[in-house]
Specification:
Elements (H helix, E strand, L loop, with lengths): L1 H28 L15 E2 L2 E2 L17 E4 L6 E4 L5 E5 L5 E4 L1 E4 L7 E7 L5 E3 L4 E5 L3 E6 L6 E7 L4 H7 L10 E5 L6 E8 L13 E6 L7 H5 L5 H6 L2 E5 L7 H6 L11 E4 L5 E4 L30 E2 L2 E2 L18 E4 L2 E4 L6 E7 L4 E6 L2 H7 L12 H5 L1 E2 L9 E5 L7 H5 L11 E8 L2 E9 L3 E3 L7 E3 L12 E5 L2 E5 L3 E4 L4 E4 L5 H44 L2 H10 L8 E2 L2 H7 L8 E5 L2 E7 L5 E7 L4 H16 L8 E5 L6 E5 L6 H6 L10 H21 L4 E2 L8 E3 L5 E3 L6 E2 L6 E3 L11 H6 L1 E3 H17 L4 E3 L5 E3 H11 L8 H6 L2 H14 L10 H25 L7 H18 L16 H8 L5
Length: 937
């Protein structure tokens, strides 16, 4: 009996073991999508990486071909694909994998060919086409082959020259073939084969035989010489080396075959099946059931989270993004309401990113969208990585109105929260209309019911999707909304005609007693005569008071405006020009026809400038400062003190000032040709009056004036408001730097001064803006903006073809990195200048616009560089006249000449390294002035 009982127990144990083993084998082999409950025993994380099925660690936790390995010997733990060395950085519920691919290839003597290869474990992962392969090395050719057919699908070449040329070539940080090159994937691949061939070209020191670095990436990589010279993987490469892989079920060629011929191993359960371009299929939750894991049994669920986390970002560029839409996890109501911010553009997560959201109207339930052009799509595609959201977003979330569709460039698209009716939604715990004063509306497209959305009740405005988001509209504050007497109350208002009053209890207008019309008329007439009489008396008294106290007031203004200080300065200072004097107010009123508005030349940030004619027939410009606070009077005194010390042909000459009015006045020489800003941007349809030679001359003279202020004046002076409107031009286009109201002078031993931030948007040094430390490099940055204006003839903030505001400096630097600078250059400049001259100016501008001041050159270096360019232009022009040779060269020849010129200048020591902490001259000031005299001005 005992033995029989033992046999039964043993049999039951064997059956149980067989059952568990069979279940694990079925799950592991992917016989049918498992449920979340059946995977409860499986590890959910490895270190800080979440693990989502079909990936898994251990038997029964993954679909066949999707095994990942957790290395628990490291801190933190690291996750790898199968038994490979490919590290997994993140896995998303949709099946998308973020992995790291980094390789180092030491160059061995006598070896000319090196090979790299990688194959997707189980052929279940695709390298997406928005990834690229980057290679850092010298004298190498890289060839990318199709992993299956062996066909060549891409190649690039990386060369190296002298250190000086390399520093210039890599200044923009892009992989342009100098020390770094990239190969893109034309289509998704399930692996790669790479051959690296070492060329026979001589590679200069210190770049010979350096280790080649290679990595896959989806994000932009900014190349540096240090990454090239290092024999190990730098931190900047590690940050860039991550690529996106998409999940592919490869046991069948497409969805149809998987559903019909191999149903038992079909991976999609109540989720959409999508064919993959290079064979196989993938699963995705879509429509209103866009939450959960599409590879688990019945895990796609209809979810809406009415709560949101704090500190969510609610704007992208100029677009406000209200809840239920959002940019970050936890900041949107549903996954399909997630939008992506790329280059200050709000993009719909639809790969590739083809639609930009320009406005979101909760009241109308509309998204206003633009369709991006192909070029824009290419530039922003890598920034709007699609983390596995539904590919049906545009088809099932957004329905076009009558005048729009998915194929049009512009449209207004309607949307809904879920496809429930309002009645059903109100009984649901995830009902979206949370605000008290909100209501539920059904959304339809033609005769098709889409779902419901929320709206603030009439008389209220705001966001109905958040608690207390709808607030009362005060109609009484709206101009011309009520022509009577307006009374506002919650949710509505009342407009009572004149002669009526509002009853707050009954909430309606009621009649009031009529006033005595005759009494009112008499009182009105009497009051009118009284006011008129009082006005006449006041006028007489004011005139008498003015005549009696005129001298006293002018003297008071004179003292208030620091007249005694300026008199002492003008009479005692040896550096002040002899022609500087103090004018009377009467003389300047006569010179300007009592400051008539027709005499206004321009309005600046620190005052208005009038044209005047003095009694000695001198034509002058008279600046009337905007004085509001005592600090601005100090700025006026500051401008007089600075201008009175400066004697330079390219700085506006000060004749004197007037201190007898409430608003102090400056009198300086009149410049007849207006400002550089007017000539560049005045009439965009007409040809600019400034030739290329004129523009270089203006830039050189302005640079000389600023260099004089920084290093040659009695005390170093920082202008602090360098811009094209402060560059004046006379009738021979001679430059005059003006408007010193914001300038600061410092002692010779100081390098910077801490001030309140002042300047003009678009020209303001970002480092000065954030630190408040004004240095000479702040003027260098502003001058770099002027150089870009001269090159492109665009304003600092301009409208692109879509009517959107663009920052000129950002666009210029991006074009320089993308090697598309010629697309931004003014057509007149492109016709008159050679490409080498254009790239020389662009290079100087890029150096001036570097974000860190210590990496910018000094103004003296900029001036000498422009002098060299002008001398080369003059020499080239003479040679053209003698030999009739063509000046303009091909882009590659021009690059070579530019690099050789830079190298030569570096060798003779004309320019110091702009990234150094301190710069020392190779010549004395006298030598530099004699040297500069050789160049035309």
């Amino acid at each position: 009996m005992g033995s029989a009982k033992g046999i039964v127990i043993t049999t039951m144990q064997l059956v149980l073991i067989w059952s568990i083993t069979s279940t694990l084998m079925l799950v592991a082999s992917g016989a049918h999508p498992p449920s979340a409950a059946s995977l409860a025993h499986c590890p959910k994380t490895c270190g800080d990486v979440s693990i989502w099925y079909p990936f898994g660690v251990g038997p029964g936790c993954f679909r066949q071909g999707f095994e990942v390995t957790c290395n628990r010997t490291t801190k933190p733990w690291k996750l790898f694909l199968g038994n490979t060395t490919t590290q997994v950085i993140a896995i998303y519920p949709s099946g998308t994998v973020l992995a790291s691919f980094v390789y180092t290839i030491p160059m061995a003597p006598g070896v000319g060919t090196y090979n790299l290869s990688w194959q997707s474990p189980g052929r279940n992962l695709n390298i997406e086409s928005y990834n690229y392969f980057a290679f850092l090395g010298c004298g190498i050719g890289v060839y990318l082959f199709h992993p299956d057919t062996g066909d060549l699908v891409g190649h690039c070449t990386s060369k190296c020259s002298s250190m000086a040329a390399m520093l210039i070539a890599t200044g923009g940080g892009s992989c342009n073939g100098m020390g770094c090159c990239t190969v893109t994937f034309p289509v998704p691949f399930r692996g790669f084969r790479v051959t690296i061939i070492k060329s026979n070209d001589t590679v200069p020191q210190p770049f010979s035989d350096i280790t080649v670095k290679a990595f896959l990436s989806f994000r932009p990589y900014y190349f540096s010489i240090m990454d090239l010279l290092s024999n190990t993987i730098n931190a900047s490469i590690v940050r860039a080396s991550s690529a996106y892989l998409s999940t592919v079920i490869a046991d069948e060629t497409n969805c149809k075959r998987a559903q019909l011929d191999n149903r038992t191993q079909y991976a999609c359960s109540n989720s959409n099946c999508m064919d993959v371009e290079n064979g196989g299929y993938s699963c995705a939750c879509s429509g209103n059931f866009d939450g959960g894991n599409p590879y688990l049994l019945d895990d796609c669920k209809q979810e809406y989270n009415p709560t949101l986390k704090t500190n969510c970002s609610r704007s992208c560029g100029s677009t406000y993004i209200p809840f239920p839409f959002g940019l970050e996890p936890g900041c949107f109501g549903k996954r399909r309401f997630q939008l992506y911010c790329a280059s200050n553009r709000t993009l719909i997560a639809r790969p590739p990113a083809k639609y930009e959201v320009t406005n979101i109207s909760l009241d109308e339930g509309l998204l206003y969208v633009n369709r991006l052009s192909e070029s824009e799509d290419a530039n922003t595609n890598y920034l709007s990585i699609y983390y596995g959201g539904s590919d049906y977003f545009g088809q099932q979330l957004i329905y076009g109105l009558e005048n729009s569709s998915l194929s049009e460039e512009y449209g207004a698209w309607s949307w809904s929260v879920t496809n429930l009716t309002c009645e059903s939604a109100k009984h649901n715990s995830t009902y979206a209309c949370l605000s008290t004063n909100s209501e539920c509306l059904g959304v339809t497209h033609g005769t098709i019911y889409i779902g419901y959305r929320c709206k603030c009740s009439p008389g209220f405005e705001g966001n109905p999707y958040v608690q207390n988001g709808c607030t009362d509209i005060d109609e009484c504050l709206v101009p011309n909304y009520c022509n009577g007497i307006c009374y506002n109350f919650q949710g509505s208002y009342s407009c009572c005609p004149h002669g009526m009053s509002f009853d707050p209890v009954r909430r309606q207008c009621t009649s009031s007693k009529r006033q005595n019309i005759v009494l009112g008329t008499a009182a009105g007439i009497s009051s009118g005569f009284g006011v008129l009489l009082l006005t006449l008396v006041a006028i007489v008294l004011i005139k008498r008071w003015k005549r009696g106290t005129h001298k006293k007031i002018r003297r008071a203004y004179f003292q208030k405006n620091k007249g005694l200080l300026l008199e002492q300065l003008i009479s005692s200072s040896e550096s002040v020009t002899h022609n500087t004097r103090i004018f009377s107010l009467e003389e300047l009123e006569k010179a300007t026809s009592n400051f008539d508005s027709t005499r206004i030349i321009r309005r600046g940030g620190h005052g208005t400038v009038y044209k005047g004619i003095l009694s000695d027939q001198r034509v002058v410009a008279i600046k009337r400062s905007k004085i509001v606070e005592q600090s601005e009077i100090d700025q006026f005194v500051n401008e007089v003190a600075i201008l009175s010390q400066i004697i330079h042909r390219n700085v506006v000459k000060l004749f004197g000032c007037c201190l007898e009015s409430e608003v102090p006045l400056l009198v300086y020489e009149f410049i007849s040709n207006g400002t550089l800003h007017d000539l560049l941007h005045g009439n965009r349809s007409a040809k600019c009056l400034l030739t290329w030679e004129d523009r270089i001359k203006i830039a050189l003279e302005a640079a000389g004036a600023l260099a004089y202020l920084h290093s040659s004046a009695a005390m170093p002076i920082f202008h602090r408001d360098v811009k094209s409107t402060n560059i004046l031009l006379d009738n021979t286009f001679t430059t005059k730097v003006s408007d010193f109201g914001a300038s600061r002078s410092i002692s010779i031993d100081q390098t910077h001064v801490v001030t309140a931030v002042q300047g003009t948007f678009g020209y303001l040094d970002p480092e000065y803006y954030y630190t408040g430390q004004l240095t000479e490099k702040s003027d260098v940055y502003s001058f770099g903006v002027i150089l870009v204006e001269i090159l492109t003839r665009k304003k600092t903030v301009f409208l692109n073809c879509l009517g959107e505001k663009q920052n000129l400096c950002h666009c210029f630097l991006q074009a320089l990195r993308d090697n598309t600078i010629m697309d931004m250059v003014d057509s007149q400049v492109a016709d008159e200048a050679s490409q080498s001259e254009i790239y020389e100016i662009a290079l100087v501008a890029e150096m001036c616009l570097r974000s860190k001041g210590e990496k910018r050159p000094k103004m003296k270096e900029v001036e000498l560089r422009l002098q060299l360019l002008r001398a080369e232009m003059s020499k080239a022009y003479k040679e053209e006249l003698k030999g009739g040779r063509e000046i303009k060269q091909s882009l590659s020849s021009e690059y070579k000449s530019t690099y050789l010129a830079m190298s030569k200048r570096a060798e003779i020591g004309l320019f110091a390294n702009s990234s150094a902490q301190a710069v020392s001259r190779c010549y004395t000031m006298e030598q530099e002035m004699m040297y500069s005299a050789e160049f035309p001005r």
